[in-house]
Write a structure and sequence with these properties.
7 helices, 0% strand, flat
Amino acid sequence: MKSYKNKYISLLFTFGIIILFVVFIASLVMGTEAISVKNAILALLNAGETKSKTIIYSIRLPRSLAAVICGAGLSVAGLLLQSALKNPLASPGILGLNTGAGFFVLLASLFFPYLTITKSLFAFLGSITAISIVYIISINAGFSKSSLILAGVAISSLMTAGIDIIITLYPDIVADKISFNLGGF
C-alpha cells in the first residue's frame, strides 16, 4: 500500500512539473505581441531577433519567474498554516491575512494616492494587524485551533465589509472591484 501511494505522489509531482514547464513556456510566447516558440527559445539562448529578446528579457521572463517564485512561496505558506493548525481548510484567506492586506491597501490608496510604496507597506501592516487581532481574540476565547480559525473567519468578514464600504463610498480609488479582489501580475 505504501509503495502504491509513493508512486501516485511521484506521478502527481511529475505531472505538476510538466504542467508548470508548459505554462511557463506559454507565458513567454503569449501576450499582446505574439512570439513563436522557436523565437522564444532562440531569445532565451541569446540568439534570434532583437525585438523578441527585448520582450522576453524585459517583460515576460521576469514576470513569469516572479509568478513561479510567488506561487511557490504561497504554497509553502499554505502548507505551514495547514500543518500548524492541523486543518486542511486553514489558509491565509480563512485567517484574515488576505482581507487585512486588501483593506489596508485601500486605506493607503485613499489617504496616500500618489505614494505607491505605501500600498506594499500597508499590505504588510494590514496582514500583521489582522493576524494580531485574530490571535488576541483566540487567546481571550481560550486559545485553541478552532478558536483561532473562527476568529480568523470573523476578522476576515469584518475586513471584507470594510473593503466593500470603502469601494462603495470611494469607487474612484478602485477602477474594478473584481480585478482588485482577484489581483494579478
